[in-house]
Amino acid sequence: MPKTRIDVPDNTRKAMVALLNARLADAMDLRSALKQAHWNVKGPSFIALHELFDQIAGRTTDFIDDIAERAVTLGGQAIGTVQEAAKNSTLEPYPVDINAEKEHVKAVADRLAAFGKLVRDAIDQADEANDKDTADLFTGVSRQIDKDLWFVEAHLG
Fold first, then answer.
1. pLDDT exceeds 80 at position 150
2. Does residue 154 sit in helix, strand or coil?
3. Mean pLDDT score of the chain, rounded to an integer?
4. How far apart are CA 33 and CA 57, in angstroms?
5. Using CA atoms, how far apart are residues 71 and 74, in angstroms rounded to an integer?
6. From the CA atom positions of the chain, what is the Rg in Å?
7. Could you tell me which residues come within 8 angstroms of residue 138 by beta carbon, excluding any fewer than 6 positions away?
8. pLDDT at 68
9. Digit-coded pLDDT (tens) for 86-145
10. In this predicted structure, what is the pLDDT of residue 104?
11. 121: closest CA among 134, 111, 108, 110?
């Protein structure tokens, strides 16, 4: 690890960079799934869902940047290529053969819930490593993902 004046031990920084890159891959995959849903959703609630999926994708882009920048701040590399995200994401692949709005809503909700769980686990791991700043970053992500999931699940009735 490169030298830094950040007073986080090297072993903690290494562990947090690995954790951040794991969630970075998932966040990039989630953003891609949201754009897939945004582009392909069809049905009576098209415009509402089209715009909702795009708004969530935009917020996910912000998370991606925050997660990547935290990894670099700690002295690591942000591993954020599409190829790496595809190889390392732990989310289920998004179905590319669906169009009906209920199918997209369910698929998006499933991925938001899975990502939210991964982020909550990351909060716990960062807390255990005594990296309050990384835990705080993930706490903000978790809070927004839960809210976005609420918005999406409202369309399931």
1. yes
2. helix
3. 97
4. 9
5. 5
6. 16
7. 23, 119, 120, 122, 123, 126
8. 98
9. 999 999 999 999 999 999 999 999 999 999 999 999 999 999 999 999 999 999 999 999
10. 98
11. 134
138 class by beta-carbon count within 10 Å (0-12 exposed, 13-18 middle, 19+ buried): buried
Q: What is the pTM of this model?
A: 0.96
φ/ψ (deg, to 5) at 42 = -140, 145
**What sections of the chain are H helices per DSSP?**
10-40, 46-73, 82-88, 101-128, 132-153
Alpha carbon distance 63, 138 (integer Å): 9
Domains in the chain, CATH or no CATH each = 10-86+98-156 (1.20.1260.10)
Rounded Cα distance, 81 and 140, in Å: 24
What pLDDT score does 43 carry?
96
Higher pLDDT pick, 4 / 80: 80
From the CB of residue 124, how many other CB atoms can be counted at a distance below 10 Å? 11
For residue 22, which amino acid is it?
Answer: A
Neighbours of 58 (CB within 10 A): 11
Among candidates 57, 68, 65, which has minimal Cα distance to 19? 68
